[in-house]
Design goal:
Distance between the termini: 19 Å
Largest sheet: 7 strands, parallel
Oligomer: single chain
Number of strands: 15
Structural class: alpha/beta
Radius of gyration: 22 Å
């Protein structure tokens, strides 16, 4: 089959699917992206597209996002047309993310080519991160701005032949009129690779010895240390955790930028803001900010953790939550709807009120003090992920079935026997 993937930040949610398809050696795969340089995948031809237009900084707020996405869409569509003209590649199916407008005009390029679009999030001032935290109040115009952002998915639900949302919570953020066109299936977790490792060791620069599973390690991981991922709550819980567990050591992974929501007004960002707020009560010799680590080192951090903290406002689940569950981490997470889809309190993890850092600290302290009491959580979490989110046995077959339903019989993708 000839397949074109479209995602401005290649590979995005398609990392495992693209690699699996390429590894079969049976398909011609193009990936259209803005990312420069694009990551290298054997058997995948990456092509760069440039936005046709970008809005001015002072562009009208209600239409600025659409203006940017329309520029992405036209740039991607023209690149697709150029690829067919100069390289002779016309796909049998197009698979891409709708959020940046890249797919908007693809039916005008190839009216007969089916499209599967990734529908990640529908904006609203209720039920999501916006307006969730009283410390970050919304303006009277916020609802208007968020509704305007939904012009892109509203246009693209008509563009695609089929849509995809990775979780039921995300699907249910979209209007019910979308639902008969959306199937729900996660990107997939490589549980065959993400396993617990009781012999794991980790060397930190400022320590003269390696850490092991015998050490009392608390971990917190996010792409960026920001409010949407509860970094401020985590920091407020730290003094009590460190005071009550004098041997505990805390490892923090994440960048200092902002992926979601507004930025801190503090000149040093949210990390500096929180250090100024609670720093005097923290033993910094036992707190390690590790930034962004290579994937193999990130795995070691999770594998060595005695208690892993995952915090988020009601928003898209991080891959790290399911990956940590696959590695049998004992997880203390925020009690919000998208997390409850993955974790059942007391069975596969522990849930705490997002707004109560003291309660979070008490739960973490109890996990550290009584590990045997919670020994069942990690294995149960892994079992849940294997049964519901495993890439090879659960997610891949569903994605392939949905792709095959849109193409002719002779072009369908074959799965190995037993899958």
């Amino acid at each position: 089959m000839r397949i074109m993937f479209v995602h401005q930040n290649m590979p995005g949610q398609y990392r495992e699917l693209v690699q699996w398809l390429a590894d079969t050696g049976e398909h011609q795969i193009y990936f259209l992206t803005q990312r420069q340089p694009p990551p290298s995948f054997d058997g995948v031809a990456s092509r760069i597209y440039k936005p046709h237009h970008k809005p001015a900084e002072n562009a009208y707020g209600l239409s600025k996002n659409w203006e940017e996405c329309a520029g992405n869409g036209l740039g991607a569509a023209r690149a697709a047309r150029r690829i067919e003209k100069t390289e002779g590649f016309k796909p049998d199916i197009v698979i891409g993310h709708v959020g940046w407008g890249e797919l908007t005009f693809f039916k005008d390029v190839w009216p007969d080519v089916p499209i599967i679009g990734f529908f990640e999030y529908f904006y609203s001032d209720k039920g999501g991160p916006v307006g969730f935290d009283p410390e970050d109040p919304v303006s009277e115009d916020t609802a208007f701005l968020l509704r305007a952002r939904n012009a892109v998915p509203l246009a693209n639900i008509e563009t695609v032949d089929l849509g995809l949302s990775p979780t039921y919570w995300q699907r249910d953020r979209f209007p019910k009129s979308f639902h008969n066109k959306l199937y729900v299936c996660h990107d997939g977790i490589r549980t065959d690779q993400l396993k617990p490792n009781p012999k794991v060791t980790l060397k930190l620069g400022r320590l003269d010895h390696e850490l092991t599973r015998d050490d009392e390690i608390v971990t917190y991981i996010a792409r960026n240390l920001e409010r949407t991922r509860g970094f401020h709550v985590f920091m407020r819980a730290l003094p009590k955790i460190l005071k009550e567990r004098p041997n505990a050591r805390v490892l923090v992974l994440g960048g200092n930028d902002t992926s979601y929501g507004g930025k801190s007004k503090h000149p040093g960002g949210l990390r500096a803001e929180m250090e100024a707020e609670v720093g005097k009560d923290i033993d910094w010799s036992r707190v390690h900010f590790l930034g962004k680590l290579p994937y193999a080192e990130y795995q070691k951090v999770v594998q060595i953790s005695r208690c892993h903290i995952y915090l988020t406002m009601p928003f898209v689940l991080s891959w790290s939550l399911l990956e940590s569950m696959s590695m049998e981490a004992t997880i203390v997470a925020s009690d919000v709807a998208p997390v409850r889809e993955a974790i059942t309190h007391g069975e596969t993890g522990l849930l705490c009120d997002f707004f109560k850092p003291d309660a979070l600290a008490d739960q973490v302290v109890d996990v550290l003090a009584n590990p045997a009491k919670y020994d069942h959580l990690g294995p149960a979490a892994r079992k849940h992920v294997v049964e519901n989110y495993d890439f090879t046995t659960e997610c891949l077959p569903e994605h392939i079935a949905q792709i095959n339903a849109l193409v002719s019989k002779e072009k369908r993708i074959k799965l190995p026997l037993g899958m």
